[in-house]
């Protein structure tokens, strides 16, 4: 081969190793019959002022007896704030701009607070964790949600579970509020250590949020929690698992489970090991299993659509297909003939997950028709 080179030569962000030799170009490269050569490619991404993702590119040019061929090189790049086995400061505030990328573990210390404002992207490397010993406050807005997801880019990773560990609340953590967030593609979206206290003040309020694509549980609860206007789907384990003495309120939530692309062998809700108080109201619990709820403790479901062959404690519940617009397309809003329409009681939750006003006869689930 007469010549191999990067089109950008020394100005290229890429470099080549051709048969063990590092260079931007090489000449008279011999390839024996029925043999091959190795070309290794590396890229150096330098910081820029932009906060958006961008693409760097070049070409490898091959000259064989005057015949020019090329291979296009493209890499995604983005400036970011990186944390590797780190702790936040006390009263730290993250604002939108460069994403925050976590390697291994980021800890919010006991007695300290991390506030995450609207539009922030928190990205996690493989198996990374956000450990909350203090307090996490998430202040997203409709259309400007806070994202907790993987640092892997590309369509192949968009809905792949298990790319990072999850958000873990320890027994020291209190007063957590997560509003208008998207949590996706982890092992367990949110997990709690058990807290033994004598009050029912929620250690976690999780509202107006979407939790999806989890390898195990969506939410693994062991402390007092209040969930409302939430959507959970594409969870390989339980959408919600409760395992302690905690008090849990779930209102106007859509808890869905359709196994279009994976096998699911667990009910959507598993409270069988709970000895606490659970109240579920104006919600939809529906999937493709005949029993989607395993109840335990002081467990009552009312004014909800629920799929369960076994009776569930409660009243005014409906056992009919909620007729979502298109579960296959992940649209869990009620269709025109849905039994969820106008079937709820007024609970003081005036807007739905789309930030749309609810009327005096609210629809069940996270969305108002």
Automatic annotation (TrEMBL):
Domain of life assignment: Bacteria
What this protein is called in its record is Right handed beta helix domain-containing protein
Show the InterPro entries listed in the entry. Answer: Pectin_lyase_fold/virulence
Residue ranges annotated as compositionally biased, kind Basic and acidic residues, are: 351-369
Region annotation (Disordered) maps to 350-369
């Amino acid at each position: 081969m007469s010549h191999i080179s990067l089109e950008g030569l020394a100005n290229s962000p890429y470099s080549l190793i051709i048969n063990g030799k590092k260079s931007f170009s090489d000449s008279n490269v011999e390839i024996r019959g029925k043999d091959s050569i190795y070309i290794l490619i590396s890229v150096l991404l330098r910081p820029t002022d932009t906060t958006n993702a961008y693409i760097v590119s070049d070409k490898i040019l091959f000259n064989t007896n005057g015949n020019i061929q090329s291979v296009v090189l493209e890499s995604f790049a983005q400036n970011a704030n990186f944390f590797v086995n780190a702790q936040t400061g006390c009263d730290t505030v993250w604002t939108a701009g460069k994403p925050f990328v976590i390697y291994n573990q980021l800890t919010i210390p006991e007695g300290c607070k991390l506030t995450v404002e609207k539009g922030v992207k928190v990205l996690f490397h493989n198996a990374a964790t956000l450990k909350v010993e203090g307090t996490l406050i998430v202040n997203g807005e409709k259309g400007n949600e806070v994202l907790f997801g993987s640092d892997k880019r590309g369509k192949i990773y968009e809905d792949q579970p298990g790319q990072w560990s999850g958000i873990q609340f320890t027994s020291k953590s209190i007063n957590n509020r997560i509003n208008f967030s998207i949590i996706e593609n982890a092992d367990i979206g949110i997990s709690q250590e058990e807290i033994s206290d004598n009050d029912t003040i929620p250690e976690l309020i999780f509202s107006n949020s979407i939790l999806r694509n989890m390898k195990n549980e969506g939410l693994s609860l062991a402390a007092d929690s209040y969930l409302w206007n939430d959507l959970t789907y594409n969870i390989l384990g339980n959408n919600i698992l409760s395992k302690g003495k905690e008090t849990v309120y779930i209102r106007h939530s859509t808890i869905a489970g359709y196994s279009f692309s994976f096998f699911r062998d667990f009910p959507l809700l598993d409270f069988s090991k709970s000895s606490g108080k659970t109240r579920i109201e104006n919600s939809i619990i529906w999937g493709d299993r005949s029993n989607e709820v395993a109840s335990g403790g002081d467990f009552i479901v009312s004014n909800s659509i629920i799929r369960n062959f076994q009776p569930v404690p409660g009243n005014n519940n409906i056992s009919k297909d909620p007729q979502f617009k298109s579960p296959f397309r992940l649209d869990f809003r009620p269709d025109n003939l849905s039994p969820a329409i106008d079937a709820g009681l007024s609970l003081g939750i005036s807007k739905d997950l789309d930030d749309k006003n609810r009327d005096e006869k609210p629809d069940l689930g996270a969305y108002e028709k």
